[in-house]
TrEMBL record:
Keywords: Membrane, Transmembrane, Transmembrane helix. This is Uncharacterized protein. The chain crosses the membrane at residues 7-31.
Amino acid sequence: MRGQTTIDFAIGIAIFLGVVVFAFSFVPGILQPFELSGEENPSLSDRTADALSQELLGSADQPYVLDRYCAVAFFNDSNDAASDCNYDSGSLSSILNLDSTHNINISVRGNVTAGGNAEQLCWTDTSPASAGESGLVERSHAECTSDAVVLARGENVVDEGSGTITARRVVSLHGQSVTLEVVLW
């Protein structure tokens, strides 16, 4: 006999079971990057922000420069811009090629007056910054009246927590640097 005792057998079984338990608990962590979950949302929000800033609201020849007419018509949900702009009229999901499971909010934010934080912007036909011409103003400004076009479209964002994915692009609109923000949930 080789002198094998019950204690040697128990130690061997304990080590074997420990390795099996470790393998079963460690393998799902290894496979997690390959599982399909909500991982398409970051790429979807980036794709949407790129499409809006590089093509749909402007020209592919000048990416990140938004055409004023097309941008204002897009946020005003105007059907008359379809022939002159790079998007078809219709619902937001059909323009951006989204399915019905995604909620989206698109807005233009910036700081067009001296001081303050970047706020949601409006397009108004009379802007104090441009001496009576059309222009951008912050939504909280007195010039952003009911006849101004609020540069936001889509669902209201209910919770900007872990369930939302935001993509931002710095673009030029009417000669000013503003931020195009796409929030997807």
